[in-house]
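chain below, 428 aa
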Amino acid sequence: MKQSNQWNRRDCLYWGSAVAASCTFPDISLSAPMLKGKAEHVISIWLGGGMGQIDTFDPKRRGDPKNNRAGSYYDSIDTAVPDVKVCEHLSKLAPLMDRITAVRTVHHEVIDEHAAATNRMHTGRPISGTITYPSIGSIVAHERGAAGAGVPAYVLIGYPNVTRGPGFLGARDGYLYLTNTSQGPAGLSRSEGITPTRQSRRENLLEVLRRSAPPGNSSQLREYDEIIRQSFELSGPEFTRAFQLEKEPTRLRSQYGGEFGQRCLLSRRLIERGVRFIEVAHNLNFLNGSGWDVHNEGILQQHKLIQEMDTAVSALIIDLEEKRLLDKTLIVITTEFGRPPEFDSAGGRGHQGAAFTCVLAGGGLSHCGAWGETDELSKTIVSHPVRVPDFFATLFAAVGVDSGKELYAGERPVPITDRGRPILELFG
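prediction:
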């Protein structure tokens, strides 16, 4: 359902200017009331490799790699929001941009290190040698828990990685993962040779060990015991039924597209069962050999990645809207950094952290198509810069998490965000 209080791009820019002007006053974030959005779930779509903002959600003049003319690789098209354009290969998302905000001014200082940038865009902080920070998914899981009984709070549809993990929060706030929609969650199915009788004996042995455990380290034992209990619960038929995509209408599955689209469809089924946070990776089945990291000839197939994302995400938005779940579900599209307007020697693009785009959709926000402006080549931020902690704070606020709250790594207090300030205008 479309929001009744829609903002247009001019509104966003006007009020954004007012907010920018107010930044000269003292920081009042500690005394300000907590923003609390309408979203109950998050579907986070990860574009590993570095999505080029200039070739997707922040198009500029047409470039020419053969003649070394900087600019967009594709033509741009109009959208449902006046003055907001997107790449021609986002033709299915273009009519839905009134449900979407492309935050065009996200930035950090990491340029050439994929791992460091990926960590930054999952934890909101630089890598530390003294502490392992929790991912945004684990923080949401920790603060909100699962929205339904017998389901995990956090599911990763992709390969496990420490950047997605719980950090100092501990295993209880980690993820359940799967790498293929046709196989179900990794680690939940019984290994071959483990009969129900053998499993029962193992459960009885665990119970004996619980009773005989020394009193010390009781909190760690309780946490481990809870993880084991949950794994047995999740391996039952009720939760695993969510992975039976063949139960969905053939026409709907076709609208979502291939494997990536099926992951997005699965994410909708998971939130229906109460999963709070889901990350869907779009860098496992490379169409061009390098995913979104389009150096050199890798850019020749970039349009296929864009089209696949366009198909899947537009289907997800429409599907959620039809099921009255869009206002309750925040869709987030992130990547480790963007791409510069210049072309490399083979016609591809390098890395750019100084200005790139992340996307928000649904979640009960007051969307305006695009937030923030970059220069004529999407290289420099012109107005309304958004730090990574600010983007995180916006996400947290949308799903009812206090971005100013302190968590504890042992006895060390750690704020949920690094002084992040939400984009207030998106909250109406």
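The CA atoms of residues 39 and 399 lie 5 Å apart. DSSP finds ten helices and 15 strands in the chain.
thats it, cya
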